[in-house]
Specification:
heterodimer; A: 251 residues; alpha/beta; three-stranded antiparallel sheet; 7 helices; globular; B: 289 residues; disordered C terminus
Amino acid sequence: MAPPPAVAAHDLSLGYGAGPALEGVHFEAAAGTTLCVLGPNGGGKTTLFRALIGDLRPLAGEVRVAGRPAYLAQTERTRLDFPVSALDVALMGSLASGRWWLPPRRAERHAALAALERVGLAAQAGTLFGELSGGQRRRAMLARALTQDAAVLLLDEPFAGVDPASAELMTAVFDELRSEGRTLLVSTHDVESARSFDLVLCLNGLQVAFGAPGESLGREVLEATYGSDLVILEEPPERPVRAITVQHHEH
Amino acid sequence: MDPLDILLDPLRSGIERRALAEVILLGGICGALSFWIMSFRLSYPAESLAHGLLPGLVLASLAGVPLLLGGTCGVALAAGLVALASSDPRVGADSATAVVVTGMFGLGALLALSPDAPARLEELLFGDPLGVTDSDLLASAALATLGAGTLAALHRPLCAVAFDSPGAGALGLRPGAVRLALMMLLAAAVAVAVQGLGSLLVLAVLVAPAVAVRSRASGPARAMLCGALVAAGAGVVGLYASHHLGSAAGASVALALCAAAGAGAALPERVRPPGAPGGGASPARRAAA
């Protein structure tokens, strides 16, 4: 018998009251695979992640995640005026173990420091979160996810608005996580970066496609996912199409 | 007057010793709590509870039962009514709260100003630290002990939720439950502190200390500790001023607290050299561990 999938959604339908925002989601990802969640803004990527962390109850169907996933949110809802250091933020990840009423153990403190080291923030451990740069803040939030030591990580648009140096550091960390055998779900609207994943899930209010990138990322799927936002750069015979998307930011 | 007398004079009377103990106990716990009231933006709910409990206090005073009982019932009733009124989306929480609180306050005044009521409205509104009894002190000590224990046990969830509420939820905490626990502690603090400082002035000890230390606080634990020290200190200063100037005790304490807040807010923002160590709640957490 095959081992149970690390992440699974079965006939999933999600919404916020006035009808479903995302329908017909049905996929499974085995432990250790990397899955790219591809789609335009408003396509349902964040909605899916909210269901996977248990923040949003499905209208229909079910989601299953092995253990409590670590979550790196797309939009920062952090309070920059709240006086916590980068180390304090990284330490928050150990709250997922459930011992919230006790001060952090020595091992948890070491794990948080190691996480800061991994994201290149060892020197900023004592710096107040609000005094870090945007890219550093994102890396501190990633350190919080690393401290959690979860088998499944959900990374929502991890590179959005991040400086190139931070993006490079984060990519290296993601590669390490992958080689450690963790399951990574990464959402993006960047078609080209999706090709390096084991699996790709295309969402545009409903599930357009799911499978290996080579089979899934054809012209029809991309057009169904992005509609008029899609710009086909090149469509050589016998090779995948190359395309970019035009993003309309309305917020 | 001998400078030593200025310090020792108020300590010679049992009434003033009790008043000092009361403001130190209440200042200690409410000063620490005020950091969370500010961080969770609960100043307006705190004011609502403090004012909305007036009918409870007045009825307790008329019936001759302990004010703490009236205050507790009043807080519970005010909180329930505010929650109920706020749930009407057509009005909005702020406006609904304002109407409920003014209504409750008016009801309290009406009861207190009825012809056969004892003339104690002033004391209920503005408080009288000099009037605290041994049982009031006992209640304050219990609040300080339970409150400190609660804040210590909830320290990490409070930090995580205040910093990033959705993220704390993803870590498995329940932000709603954490917020509710904080609200219950706030309600208990209001019910107890209102005995000494009155329905109108109690807000000073729940909000002013956090304002006073905000710009200097490098971490939640330090902010709580400094808030507690500032509040207890301002309480003592207010009582001494009241003794020597002959001013109303409750109002003097409230003014001293607000003066500390004004002075703290006027201080320049703390400048940190880049990469300086420290910050966060780590020192206190290490001490607690």
